[in-house]
Write a structure and sequence with these properties.
Chain B: This is MHD domain-containing protein. Chain B: It is a peripheral membrane protein. Chain B: It comes from Gambusia affinis (Western mosquitofish). The complex is a heterodimer of chains A (978) and B (418). With 978 residues, chain A is of the alpha+beta class. Chain A is elongated. Helices cover 48% and strands 9% of the residues of chain A. Chain A has 40 helices and 13 strands. Chain B has three domains: 2-148, Beta-Lactamase (2-Layer Sandwich), CATH 3.30.450.60; 178-185 and 199-261 and 385-407, Mu homology domain, subdomain B (Immunoglobulin-like, Sandwich); 274-380, Mu homology domain, subdomain B (Immunoglobulin-like), CATH 2.60.40.1170. Helix content of chain B is 17%, strand content 41%. Chain B contains seven helices and 23 strands. Chain B has helices at residues 29-39, 76-94, 99-104, 106-116, 127-133, 139-148, 239-245; strands at 2-9, 14-19, 48-50, 55-61, 64-70, 117-118, 121-122, 178-191, 197-211, 217-222, 231-233, 247-250, 255-264, 274-282, 288-297, 305-313, 318-325, 329-333, 338-344, 353-360, 373-380, 389-395, 402-416. Chain B has a nine-stranded mixed β-sheet with strand order 11-13-9-8-23-21-16-19-18, with no helix packed on it. Chain B has a five-stranded antiparallel β-sheet with strand order 2-1-5-4-3. A four-stranded antiparallel β-sheet of chain B has the order 14-15-20-17, with no helix packed on it. In chain B, strand 6 and strand 7 form a beta hairpin. Chain B is globular, with a radius of gyration of 25 Å. Chain B starts with a strand and ends with a strand. The chains are: A alpha+beta (978), B alpha+beta (418). At the A-B interface, helix 2, helix 4, helix 6, helix 8 and helix 11 of A face strand 2, strand 4, helix 2, helix 4 and strand 7 of B.
Chain lengths: 978, 418
Amino acid sequence: MTDSKYFTTTKKGEIFELKAELNSDKKEKKKEAVKKVIASMTVGKDVSALFPDVVNCMQTDNLELKKLVYLYLMNYAKSQPDMAIMAVNTFVKDCEDPNPLIRALAVRTMGCIRVDKITEYLCEPLRKCLKDEDPYVRKTAAVCVAKLHDINAQLVEDQGFLDTLKDLISDSNPMVVANAVAALSEIAESHPNSNLLDLNPQTINKLLTALNECTEWGQIFILDCLANYTPRDDRESQSICERVTPRLSHANSAVVLSAVKVLMKFMEMLPKDLDYYGTLLKKLAPPLVTLLSAEPELQYVALRNINLIVQRRPEILKHEMKVFFVKYNDPIYVKLEKLDIMIRLASQANIAQVLAELKEYATEVDVDFVRKAVRAIGRCAIKVEQSAERCVSTLLDLIQTKVNYVVQEAIVVIKDIFRKYPNKYESVIATLCENLDSLDEPEARAAMIWIVGEYAERIDNADELLESFLEGFHDESTQVQLQLLTAIVKLFLKKPTETQELVQQVLSLATQDSDNPDLRDRGYIYWRLLSTDPVAAKEVVLAEKPLISEETDLIEPTLLEELICHIGTLASVYHKPPSAFVEGSRGVQHKRLPGSAGSGESVESPDTGSAAGVSDAPPAVIPSQGDLLGDLLNLDLTPPTTTGPPPPATSGMQLGAMDLLGGGLDSLPPIPLRTDTPQSPQIPHQSPSPPDYSPTELGGDLGGSSTMGAGFGAPPAAPAASFSAPVSGGLDDLFDLGGGVGMPMGAYSPPKTVWLPAMKGKGLEISGTFARRAGVIQMEMTLTNKAMSIMTDFAIQFNRNSFGLAPAGPLQVLTPLSPNQSIEVTLPLNTVGPVMKMDPLNNLQVAVKNNIDVFYFSCQYPISMLFVEDGKMERQVFLATWKDISNDNEAQFQIKDCHLSSDAASNKLQGSNIFTIAKRTVDGQDMLYQSTKLSNGIWVLAELRVQTGNPTFTVCLKCRAPEVSQCVFQSYDAVLKN
Amino acid sequence: MINSLFLISHSGDIFLEKHWKSVISRSVCDYFLEAKEKAGDPENVAPVLQTPHHYLISIYRGKLFFLSVTQTEVPPLFVIEFLHRVADTFQDYFGDCSEVLIKENTVTVYELLEEMLDNGFPLATESNVLKEMIRPPTILRSVVNTLTGGSNVGGTLPTGQLSNVPWRRAGVKYTNNEAYFDVIEEIDAILDKSGTTVFAEIQGVIEACVKLTGMPDLTLSFMNPRLLDDVSFHPCVRFKRWESEHVLSFIPPDGNFRLMSYHVSSQNLVAIPVYVKQNISFLETGSCGRLDITIGPKQTMGKTVESLTVTIPMPKSVLSVNLTATQGTCTFDLTTKVVFWDVGKLNPQKLPNLRGSISIQTGAPKPEENPSINIDMKIQQLAISGLKVSRLDMYGEKYKPFKGVKYVTKAGKFQVRT
């Protein structure tokens, strides 16, 4: 005789049979039929077709049958609104029934029928029921207002139900009060700014009275409502706390947690020296501990909340470490939370116990848990300094187990320990290196690479180790690639002699063969740092690492404050503010803890704070140390600060030059390429605008605690700023600076610019330019002595550069340079010096020495200096070569504002050894085919399109070494405009 | 508030759904089933899940998932407590909370759910009140109802609903007036290899069965109430009196209920009733290991330890065991790899011992994890914390009730690490 009989069916069609039974004359058969219908409904079968037949059974004095019909109606009224109207009369009649149970049932069911036509009829009965003499009806009606509001908010407001509901807060029956509060809270959630729950001391008092007498669920509603109140002063706060404290002993854990929320919030207002404050702190611990002996689901929610409470007020649970010890049959979600809290509570006093536990956990079955336990050991080491040594030896023991994932986790945390306590535990590196081959997870590989790079000077075969990683560079994940790049640069800076090849290899892998913008950007930055300023590179790459914080995953304080106000809610489980996940545009008010007595400091909201932090990043990252440079192999690396403090970089000239060197030219090639020739394959996904270079991405190499730790010390936001300087603008600046030095006939030579300002040269100012005269490249310099003493013994040296430029003779400064004297020097150059690819290609690093010091600067020479006189190609050869060079190597540029005829342009270019081979005119557009040859034998083929009357020329360059195209274009631009 | 409830079987079948607001498609459960799939063991499914439009809060009881769906920010503990209450009610009504029984009583289940929640707000969750409105199915009543056409739904408003003592119905009458209290204590403990206590605490409850006529007002006092520093009470207990006098003063609900639960924390010394001498080792080479366990009494306050059982979940690579027990029976479950030793009574003169060999799959490496030993036991007539009831007084009624207090200590999560 169970309900399962209702599921038996015959072949004839269930619905058909039920219909017949529902219309039966026999009462009993009818009831059985309705039960069958309900039974089908419960398992999700569609029995809506029986609607009229079921509604017909509604008029009955049998309460059970009535309830069953109501159950059916609530489910299906929506699908049959017209039929549902048939039921209205019965509802209205039932609302007048002498039996309060039936009155309440009718109003309750009506509210559940989400059909507009029915809700219209609901208003009058509802109004009556809200004032019913029986509290059971009133409390049911209170909830009904919330239902109606959900269906038709406007109607509820128009009918004044909200006011009636507010009046119910003062009802004599505590259950009615609780339900009114619950209904109002739910309505208020969709009207965040309405003042529905207008809490004042009188209502608070009523709520507190009702709190003691209503059901456990009502207590939850009232406590949650109380938590929104802000007491006027600490005395009111204390009296509320006193009346809420007994709830901590309730058997219902939700009541307990809601009470904890109220207390945690109102405690903020109590003066800390108050006796009651201490008592309250003591009272909070036992109920929280008790929550942990409940069912695992409750434990989980409790633990998530305890995690917040422990961060806010660690003193509450500081003696309760043991209750967080993990039992092996705890569900995994409970284990992980417990572990987290154990670390938060770890202190010098209990660290021994904690470590013993963690070591035990590291041999458990569950892999996730074991990993977290290993990590936790590392966190202990970082948090409690006295334990670091034991932690490290524990970790080493674990590494000895050779269990793969344990070893990998251990290496990741040991990296953090190295960072926290430098030069203390490096003796274990050898052990770590033994496990190099077993690392297959990116995080562990990255950590190991970091360790090798960081301690390269102590690891004899660091270069071999890193080189072994380099082989599969492109198969590695990004974090490993970034780490490898940084580590090799570190290694190079520490052991430059043996590793030059390695660093070049990794730089070219990162910058040329990678599609990852982060990797490429970092590569470029290192490259430029190394090429322009190795000392600065050392300072940046091997900078002091910022200390890693003790607690790696603390919740940000303002968020924590908000979450404390949301204890017991979903927000506290997700550890996110409700605004981050509550659906829709329902504005969620940010709750804040009240200020403690006497201190009313306001706190910025977390998001604006972090946004400001990003945009406030200093705009210049390249240190103003100056344009030092030098061949790492030949020149010493002493910074120029040996004899005095570095001069402040204030000169406008210098800043201009800095800007150029900083980024005007060198890192730009991809950007104009992208904008002008979208088909260009060199830059598959270059982001066109600097803001896309997110600083965090640039810096984020290792993740976790050591985000900034991989030797990328300085905030990396700034290079992006200099990326934005348009290339032509940069060149214009360059030309503007020097003033008009007469242009010689023939080859174009840019005006002189200041290369070494007097501020940096200890009084020696060098300005200069390059020229090609009669096939000889010359460096023309003006040396000015702006110091007070005589300068003698001048000498010059170049760093290796892209085209092997080198002085053809010594610097001819025969007479000593007296103060305020200038001298013009011409230095012939040849192209047989050592070659090293520079970035930008035409960058030249120069060291000038005199009796005072050695000065370093870098300058850029127009590549047209290198165009040799025999650069005219045969027509046939030209055609064949043009076809032969793949289109991938083609680059197209625009030259704007050039008011020359095609012939004049051709002549001008010829003066700079760019030879026109052929000319074609199509549709009023002159196409000049030109060739030129660089001193190292690279041919560049060009198609220059000149439209009569249009000042914008288009030049299309093809070359087997496409890197030079950008420089060649710059020369075109410069030559044509001068 | 709570929008919908889905009952999902152990295997992932959704076999019942109930909506208190608008209907939410059962496809929302897919997120849950996915998480269940991922978790592997059903006990490891996280109780709070987030989906794009809903929050799923679930409990796992009796091989069933109770999954509730909410659309707004609600206190998850409130939902979890409620779900446990639903499960308790089913257990109370049908004797057990299982898929079969729920399916057999699906209409009653539906009526109950409707009565327990209105628009997502709890309505009547006290079993006393519910039973007045919807009578539990009994074979006798079914027969009577069929014959007389009567119904099993109460026609009058339950009296408890609105009084100051919502947990008690009015007009209770018994011919035999009796009040029994069971003090049940469970020891949760973790012992390490050497037998030292890593952690131990006592979870105690006082379960009451009160069948008293009228409106009795009871006062229960203890010999040593100071032991109880961390308590939670049934709503009927007057908290003020506890704070001031350390007595339990209350008007009891009718029938069975949990009067209070308490927690004797690890700060106080917790007596450990048994000790375990154990040695489980796996050989570095070769595919076998040894096991040797002896259990003896420690602090039993002169009482006998009964129903002693030992459970050892072995590593997955264990193939079989060959163990001999000096007392009781020992079994090994081949699928779950659990060694179960039913010892029975602990005889201090002749300590039970289990020893033998363990064989591991050939070629499998030496297991990394150490199995834990789980102990279960029972000690009658003893509350291990030392708690003692001194007297029970009744006010408000004239008759003399029959009173009784029983003590029992059990092992809760009692684990020995190896």
